Every structure is written in structure tokens, then in C-alpha cells.
Amino acid sequence: MAALRDVLLSIAQTPHRLRRRALVTWTPAQETSEVRDRSGARMKRRLEWYDLVGLGVGGMLGAGVFVTTGRVARDTAGPAVFASYVIAGVSALLSSFCYAEFSVRVPAAGGAFSYLRVTFGELVGFFGGANILMEYVLSNAAVARSFTDYLASTCGITEPDAWRIQVDGIAKGYNALDFPAVALILVLTLCLCYSTKESAMLNMVITVFHLLFFVFIILAGLWNGSARNLVSPHGLAPYGVRGVLDGAAIVYFSYIGYDSASTMAEEIRDPARALPVGIAGSVLVVSALYCLMSLALCAMLPYTEIAESAPFSAVFREKAGWEWAGSVVGAGASLGIVASLLVAMLGQARYLCVIARARLVPAWLAKVHPSTGTPMNATIFLGLCTASIALFTELQVVFEMISIGTLLVFYLVANALIYHRYAKLGANRSLHVLLFLLLLTLSSLGFSLSRRIHGQCRWGMALFGATSVTITAMFHCAVRRDMPEPPSEWMVPLMPWPAAASVFLNVFLMTTLKVMSFQRFGLWSFVIIVFYVCYGVHSTYSAEENEAVNAMIHHANMDIS
Predict the structure, then answer these.
(1) Which of these, 50, 143, 277, 463, is most buried using a 10 Å CB contact count?
(2) What does the alpha-carbon distance between residue 191 and residue 496 come to, in Å, rounded to a whole number?
(3) Low-confidence stretches of the chain (pLDDT beneath 50)
């Protein structure tokens, strides 16, 4: 009866607790000291800047070219898929600048969750953190299933589902059981539980070999390709500008990984120097490689003939007649996918660990193992979740769901940087900064929706585009940029323009996704809010009360002694 009475009391107090907790923020100092101490043991600072660059590059390369390029080139953008990568790369670079500044100011393992929580409060932080977790789990499952395709291709097997078990009675898209993908995820989970430094060394070795495969593919592809394939049979951009832009939203999936580097902030020896280099530098390197790889693929074969599964292996077999090259590419892609999974699973565990520190999910997920210095509970839990999805779910079911979650979180981080820089650190009124962010979002949305109108409403695009630039220019001229003291950390230059451009591009790319993506995203967002109202807000409220009581007892004991 007592337990039931407590539950009913909590339900009755939900509105009060929401008012008390939803907008509460922590300072960066609290996030990196008091909150971090809730994990018990601390993560070990054993990583250098080159480890971070390796993690960023390795985390992006496997997931990008080998999973999305063939599909987007064939069905969405045509040979102009390289332009899709350029657009997505610019957006990712701008977002990486935002991440880099925040990671220096708030060197905690929570990444976007921590940045949003110290800026906009607990509810927005949890919403962003839960979305990034969903994106990680789904993308890792998708990448693990593509590992099976390329491993089979390495062995000379071209049938996509040859190593999967078909089960009757399960809905299409979920009926091909992928046990090799599950095995890979479980093995990497065990590696990540053992040590972060050793995992980073393994990633570095794999990434070096993977880069050699990239050089081989680019040179061999351009050598055997023809510029004629880039413009035939229907021109460079057969699906038009809209196809290129739609493709950019989908290939944004390829840039998942650089934000994993920001979650290493508690394990880097010199965060202020290493984090900006590792995060932004890895995006630049990978963007160049993506463009060259996509050009090589489309130069070798007309886009209409590109294989849906393992396209790079298939193109060397069919076009060049290099059976051995197809196996080499399959092996290289498999290595890249292993590195990508390793980094992403490293990042997702740290996100969940810090969310658990905030008591928004069960506290046992926050524990750091004292001997390995890794968030072992979070790593095992998310490894099992990822393996379960990879067992059943086909790639196409999750691709666009991944992109919308990623774009939303990057949009929120860009907004948070502007607000944090000018309202929290600066001397500007919060309302003025929030009004600017609202107007910028609305004008970006107006531009994007104008493009969606049949026949393209060019006057609307011109009007809203000019409005976005004008609003940003007015804010730049009117805002006070004085800080309480001269900043010593790395900061994004030319603010607010890079962050404003990131807001604009992320809104634009989100509107290119299909309606089904928004429906699935809306359902997931509803689940997040319900979980926060039913569990998260009560857990954090109780934790706050307990800490206040413990602090009073501690002070009383100090007075007595």
C-alpha cells in the first residue's frame, strides 16, 4: 500500500515537478565535476589528439560510401551524388564547429545531451540525447547488416541475402535474419568493455588499412572509368536539383561519427587542443574522400546499372572484370564497417552513461568500471539493443529515420551555441536571442517549403532566403559581443554566421525527407516525452531531494565535529 501511495503521490505532483525540472540547467563546472562523480570511478584520460582524428575518420568512412552511395546514385541523385556529399559535408562541417566549441567549454562525455542540458534545460537535453541514441542504435544496426553483404562479396558471393536466414510469417523487411551482423556487434561490445585506449589503437590500425583501400578504389575507379558515364544516359543530374538535395539529406547518414569524437572529452589528455582538431579535421578529410569515391563509382558504370547491394565490389567484377579486385574491395569495406561500428558503439555508450548520470534513465547505466575505466553497463545494454535490431531489420527501413534524428540534434546544437554564446556568456537578453532563433528557423522553413511547392516557388525561395540573411545580419550588428572575461578556449570564428548557416541547412535538409520519416519520428518523439513525464522527471526530482538531504546531513555533521 505504501508503494502504491507513493506512486499516486508522484502522479499528482507531476505538473509541479515538470515546472521544477524541465527547464533546470547545470553549469559546465557542475557537469564536469558533481555530475561526473555519480559514475563512481572516472574514465581514464589515455587518448591523444591523433587518436581522436583516427576515431573521427574511422567512425565516418565505413558507414558512408559503402552503405549509402550506391543507393543514392541509382535512385535519388544520379551521377551528381558527389554534389549531394558536398552539400551534406558543408552542413556537417558547420555543425562540427558548433560541437567543437561546446566540447571545449563542456568537456563531458555526454556530447549533444550535455550541451543542450547546460543551455536549454533538462527536457530539451533529454529529447536531443534520446534522439541521438536512437540514431546511433539504428545506424549501427544498418551498418552491421551491410557488413554481411561485403563479407559475402569478399568470398565471391553476390546474392545479397545468401548469408541471411529467411523466415516465413514475418513482415517483409524484417524476415531476413542476419546472424553475422549480430556476431560482429557482440564481439565489438566485448572489446569496448575491456579498454578505450586499446579500442582506439585497434581502430587506428583498421583505419590506416582502410585508407589504403580507399586510395586503391579511387585510383582504380578513375583509371577504369569514363567521363561519359557521368553524363549518360540522362545527364549529370537526371533527377534534377531536387534529387541532389534529397540525396544530400540521405547521405548525411554518412557523417554520423564525428560527433562520437566529442563524447571522448573525458578521456582526452588535452581537450582544448585535441577536440577542435579531431572533430572538424576528420569531417574535412572524410568529405574529400566521399566525393572522390562517389565520382569513381559513377565513372565506372552508368548510374542505372549500379548494384543495390555492395556496389563497389560489383562494379569491379562487372566493369573491369577484376574478380580479385571485387574481393579486395569487399575486404576493405568490411574493415571500414568494423571501424565505423567500433567508434559509433564507443560514442553511444557514453551518451547513455551521461544521461544516466542525470538520473533520466536508471542509475546503474551510469556506472564506470573501476579497473577498465569504461561505462560497461551502458556498453552491454546498447550492444544487445543494436544486435536485436540488426538481426531483423533491413537497411531501407531505418535510413531516413536515422537522417531526421541526426539533423534535428545538429539543428538543436547550433541553436544552443548561439544562445549560450550571446545570452548565457554575453550580456544580451535571453528573449532577444530566442526571438532571433525563432525568426531564423521560420525563414529557413519558409525557404525549404517554397522549394517543395510544385514547379518550385522561386519568389518564395528568394524572399525567405533574403529574410534569413537579413535577420542574421541585423542580429550580428545589434548583438552585444562583450564577454565577462576574455575567453581562453577555442571559439567558432565569424559568429553568428556559421551557426546560423548550420540552422538553415539542417532545416532545409530535414524538409527533403519523406512524410513517412516524420511520422516515424513523431511516434518516437511521443515515446520520449511520455518516458520523461512518467519516469525521467520523477527520477531527477527524487535525486535532487536526496542530494539536498544528504548535503544537510553532511553540513550538520561538520558543525557537530
Answers:
(1) 143
(2) 41
(3) 485-486
DSSP notation for 55-70: HHHHHHHHHHIIIIIH
Question: Residue 433's Cα: distance from chain center in Å?
Answer: 26
The three-class DSSP label of residue 231 is coil
How many distinct structural domains can be found in the chain? 1
* Rounded alpha-carbon distances, angstroms, from residue 478 to 414, 469, 481, 494: 20, 14, 9, 15
**Cα–Cα dist 146/393, whole Å:** 11
Please measure the distance between the N-terminal and C-terminal CA atoms of the chain and give it in whole angstroms: 40
pLDDT at 7: 62
In a domain, 423, yes or no: no
13, 222 Cβ separation under 8 angstroms = no
β-pair type (176-177, 165-166)? antiparallel
C-alpha cell at 63: 558507414
C-alpha cell at 393: 531489420
Per-residue pLDDT reduced to its tens digit, 167-222: 776 666 566 778 888 888 999 898 888 766 777 777 778 888 878 888 888 888 78
pLDDT at 439: 95
In a domain? residue 200: yes
- Quickly count: other Cβ atoms within 10 Å of residue 331's Cβ: 18
- Tell me how many degrees the CA angle 165-171-174 measures, rounded to the nearest 5: 50
Domain annotation covers residue 482: no
How many CB atoms lie under 10 A from the CB of residue 561?
5
Helical H runs in 65-121? 70-72, 81-105, 112-120
For 94, 139, 255, 293, 297, the CA distances from 73, given in Å and listed in that order, are 25, 20, 17, 12, 9
In a domain, 481, yes or no: no
Q: Which of 264, 287, 288, 292 is nearest to 276 (CA)?
A: 264
Is residue 330 within 8 Å of residue 153, measured between CB atoms?
Answer: yes
* Separation of alpha carbons 251 and 297, rounded Å: 15
The pTM score is 0.84
